[in-house]
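ENTRY TYPE: paired fold submission
RECORD: A
CONTENT: sequence, then structure tokens
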Amino acid sequence: MKILHILSVVLVLSLGAMTAHAAGFNMKSFPDGIGMSDMMYRFLVPEGVTITNKKGEVMKAGSIVTVPGSNIKLLESAYAKEQAKNEKFMSGFVNSTQYFGMPEEKVRDHAIISVKVPEGVTVEGYGRTIKGEAELVLMVANTGAETMPDTHPADYWASTGWEMK
């Protein structure tokens, strides 16, 4: 009976560690603001955005997109607001009107990310089309984001661009 209790505790601790590892976008998963190269970052496609990967798979709002850590940066809200006057920055900020029109208390529930769009991947939404290779700036909900270890072979991302689910 004691062994069963010990195994139960080990299982609970293991699940707790996995949950902590799959945390959302936070400063720990973005040292120096850049995504960790040994991690994958998953996020929900925002409302009004459509993504097509290299394989021709199309994902719409509510779908999950996985991006390698080396292709993603977390931007501070203050930086995004400061760059609002920069035409090049704003041309790549797909859902900027949604972000800048949001009440301040809701802004804290979102992250602003810059994502390298690989060649062969297209992001469309809010009257903009961004074709890789390019930089995409996107507001994502913290609750709809997670990080996890990248277990794919080294050449995987070159063939898919982004993974869609």
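RECORD: B
CONTENT: sequence, then structure tokens
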Amino acid sequence: MIRDKSHMEQVQRWAEFVKNNSRDKWKPAVNDLINSQYEIAARFYKNLEKTEKGREILERLKNERTKVKKNL
């Protein structure tokens, strides 16, 4: 995926912020971001369960994950 210049500038600003500040200052922002991603995923799967087609998809995903675990 191609990102624009402003994206790379933001990445560089964040890297500088992390480099120049203690973990106590930047870690809460990272935790908030990660937690929000989990919440979005949970909401997505909950909505997917509401339809027959969605339940079929979830069942296929579950079966695929089980196959991967057995092969590890």
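NOTES ON RECORD B: The two ends are 30 Å apart (CA to CA). The CA atoms of residues 45 and 53 lie 12 Å apart.
STATUS: closed
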